[in-house]
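REVIEWER CHECKLIST
Item 1: Sequence provided? yes
Item 2: Single chain? yes
Item 3: Sequence as submitted:
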Amino acid sequence: MNRFLSSLAVAIALAGQPAVAQSWDTGHWTASWGAAPVGAPTDAGLHTFSNQTLRLVVQSSIGGNRVRIRLSNELGSTPLRIGAARIGLRAQGSDVAPGTDRALTFGGRPSVTIPAGAPALSDPVELHLPPLAQVAVSLYLPGNVQVATLSQARQAGYVSPGGDHTASASLPVQRTIATRPFLTALEVDSMNGAIVVLGDALTDGVRSPASRLAVVNRSIGGNRLLSDDPARPLAGRSALARFERDVLATSGVRHVVLQVGIEDIGNSSAANPVTLEDMVAGYRQLIARARAARIAVIGTTLAPFEGAAFYSVEKETLRQAVNAWIRSSGEFDAVFDADRVLRDPARPSRLLPAHDSGDHLHPNERGVQALGEAMPLLRR
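Item 4: Structure as written out by the authors:
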């Protein structure tokens, strides 16, 4: 279990935030797991399927007794046909635990065609889902499918030989993939709220805790606050562009943690430099849009990156200015000082060597653990 997000959930739950829940007129649904969709995988050949079944594994944060899934064709340019879909608890590997397999429907139908640019929610099914459960979602893709919408995964997904194997307790496996095509959320019928983490590689891929609040990780490695990176489609749309889809559309969201901006600073160019005013305007946009939806916003300072490939003294000066604004502006509902946790006291522009993964930008497991242990220091 990742201590950063575990402590995050506890800290926010105890932070005494005023009630900022959405209205509960949609069945009390709360996302228990979620990921931010990106597009155009670099290994396109491995993401072409023909009359095959995918079995994708996710981990819940909170539990419930009714579940549904969200699928996405939001980055696709052609309709997506899902011939059949099922959900169950994973036993091991690609196997579904006996007695937990459930068929999913969409508007009462066993299949669905999702238009280009659109998502789709399944109908709910009865399934007892414990917290931190391993969940297997099976999708049958009839015909030829070129994946355009997926999320990165630190969990193997399974691809069958030809045919609809969604109902097979043990999926015949032709190969594995390290992504989750089309699947972007697992939701439970629960009054508990969700914390959405919107960020970049610092929080991308870490696991969710057991808590009375769900944690939905919408972080993407390489993601920026202000702009897209046309050369890196797997870095996703900018936080400004994806905020409605990845935060506001998350069922049950009550809090959002913003941990994004270092990629904007690091990739700032002399010809088109990013300024403090640009960064502040971007953060203020996200704060305003969250507040309009009655969502509390937690700002996270930007960790040091001296030694990284895109470091410069000028960029460090900008990082320090951004962090000073995050700490002192009073515009966030709370602030978590990741910079203070991760930096080297003897050289604050660098990560502490014990926290450095080796690229001088991303913390290692020990660094992530340090963030988790510091999270109770979250302050108003």
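Item 5: Key structural point noted by reviewer: Residues 16-25, 205-210 have pLDDT under 50 and may be disordered.
Item 6: Recommendation: ____
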